[in-house]
């Protein structure tokens, strides 16, 4: 019986090879799309997961995920610091800027403005240079993917200068940051330096990063900050989950990959 079945299956070589190729290609396509989908979703919360020092992210109540933000007033930082359960709280700026590198075309970048004193929010790993050099005037750290995007095929090096909003900024280091959902180069600067190059609005601070005192859980801290300040306070895990859910429920990405 099996012999007859095999004979029927392989009797017409053209149909047999077409069947094998079709199944193999469909399997490859499904595996590839699933892999791309999970990689894309993982990028949604990459910048949240890269910042390991903070227990809680504080933001405007209208913020749904990390790529759609509303700036906070500087006084909100002091209100968060005034919460009893807070050990420390620092500002974090996340903004977009346009850079010019020599004669190359304009490129849009993500600017991360870190607290001048603590530098909390720095990337997980440096490839070239010392991150402490970011304290120098007009200094910045760029991620490796961003360098390769702006200067494709060129040797990676520090010391190059780029222009942002008519100000020249020097690259003092190159880091290895997790790729974000929006695939733009990432640059890290001190908060005070970022304020000089980003077109100034009434408010500039995007998030407040807070750390709980010893013996206090991140969930308790988030509740206390929300209670005392009326701002939205989420643990790192909750904010990452909310960002992923936003992409899953508010965009066509799951449907597009699901159809494939």
Report on this model:
The structure is a single chain. By secondary structure, the protein is of the alpha+beta class. Helices cover 39% and strands 25% of the residues. The protein has nine helices and ten strands. Strands 2-3-8-5-7-6 form a six-stranded mixed barrel. It is globular.
- Main structural class: alpha+beta
Number of helices: 9
Beta-sheet strand percentage? 15-25%
- What's the average pLDDT? 86
Give the oligomeric state of the chains in this entry, treating copies of one chain as homo and distinct chains as hetero.
single chain
- Overall spatial form: globular
State the end-to-end CA separation: 37 Å
Helix amount? 25-40%
Largest β sheet strand count, sense and barrel closure: 6 strands, mixed, barrel
| Run of helices and strands | HHHEHEEEEHEEEHEHEHH
> Which residue ranges are poorly predicted, with pLDDT under 50 across at least 5 consecutive positions?
none
- The tally of beta strands, per DSSP, is 10
In the sheet with the most strands, the strands line up as 2-3-8-5-7-6
Question: What is the CA-based Rg, rounded?
Answer: 24 Å
